[in-house]
Amino acid sequence: MPPATGEERLHLATVARLAGRADASRLVCQQVAARARADGDPELLARAALLEGADLRPGVVDRGLVAHLEEALTAIAALDGRAPALACRLEARLAAALQPAANPEGPIAMARRALANTRALGDDALLLDVLEVAGSALVDYAPPEERRALSEELLALATRAGDGPKALRAQARAALDQMELGDFDAFERTAAAMLALSDEVGHPRHRWRALLVASCRALTLGYFTESERHASEASHLGALTDDPALPLALCAHRALRARLTRHDDELPSALADLERSMSGVPQAELVAALVRATCFARVEDADGTRRELTLIGARGAGLTTDRTFQAWLAEAYALAGTDAERAATRALLVDARTGDVVGGHIPFTYEGTVARLLGLLDAALGDAAGAERNLGEARALAAHRRHAPWVAQLDYERGKVARRAGREEDARALFSAAAEAAAELGMTGLVSAARRRLDRVEATTTTTAAPAPGPGPREVESAREGELWRFSRGATTVRIRASRGAELLSLLFERPGEELH
After folding, report:
1. What is the dihedral of CA 478, 479, 483, 484, to 10 degrees?
2. For the chain, how many helices (H) and strands (E)?
3. What would the pLDDT profile of 265-311 be if each residue is shown by its tens digit?
């Protein structure tokens, strides 16, 4: 047979991708691109670059793909407007390929320009393609109201065109936007619609996102068994498709799922798997340290959290342009940061556009309310009134939304604030409620933590109830402040130089009555 034409080779690459062989598809695209360069065919070069980048990989920047897209866009621009549709597609795909960027505004502007140019051409089929791709450059970065409008437009066009995969992409984005905007009724409807549509589409490549969104919905409501079922099915689909976005999404979802459910024993292996899957993620070492820090903070591992924050160091300021990263830093700083770090992060959260935080389009998780984060930071900064107000607001909202795991977690955190304020009876009631709710849900780590705190309250109450001279015992607060450790009891505060001994002293105060090696 005669040698295959470039058109035939691109068709072969399309078939390979649909068959779950993205690796073979990409190799063929690169071969076609080489031929297009040799023949001086900019349109074939552009189509090869677009097919090579047909799979969107959130959170990952593939420098090779970026170079191919930039080369193709330059070649198409030299045609002086004779291929406007290809120019729109290339600019949109390049914008998505550049995210996450150190300055996300550049790719955002590129995506918006591609959308504006596409609308001017009046081609609905082209607009459908560009909306799907350009939207990937805006997810997590553009204002949520803008993202929600674009997701709804993408869904309407995909539904009208009978394009199930693009409709599923639109629904996945809409689900994240709905959570961030606090519309959990809409989110639950979207999660159910995604499962139904993914069944209809039937391909593993288009099923797994629906399963992770459904797992996220189940997690927010405390249906952990249902969440595990959905996450397990998504994991099994990994053997049936080589979608490059799937491994990272699965590992991130698993790690943050263990954090929310307080299955503390699962965290070490989940975090190790996540770190191994982060090839191609910009600043992977830094992001991995941040994820570990926020997970250690949730389980109250102050030493582990402090160790990861030390790795992050001054680079933490570069993470604060991302809303999710702000939230993760806030929880870590509340436990083991400095007052300056806490205050700076609190100021960012106060200016937040919405009151809820999501994990984004990699882990597909809900990260709780801004009010909770403000409450944790207030407590760490010594503002008991602010802590009680914000944590109380977060708890009321979680109860209204039926977010049982967050209710249990917040009762525990409110109990710690009450005890620091000397309100032992309130602390006892809150720790007891947290332990009971966590036990019912299977949040084993939270059950243990709440019961330990409850035992301390009981021990203190028993001691203070017995006749004894002088004032009753009062809890000692300790916190690391740069090169110093601060220890406070009532109105008395002392500071000593940071050392291993000071760390151990802090641990002894944190866990009175326990035998510590």
Report:
1. -30
2. 24, 5
3. 999 999 999 999 998 898 999 999 999 999 999 999 999 999 999 99
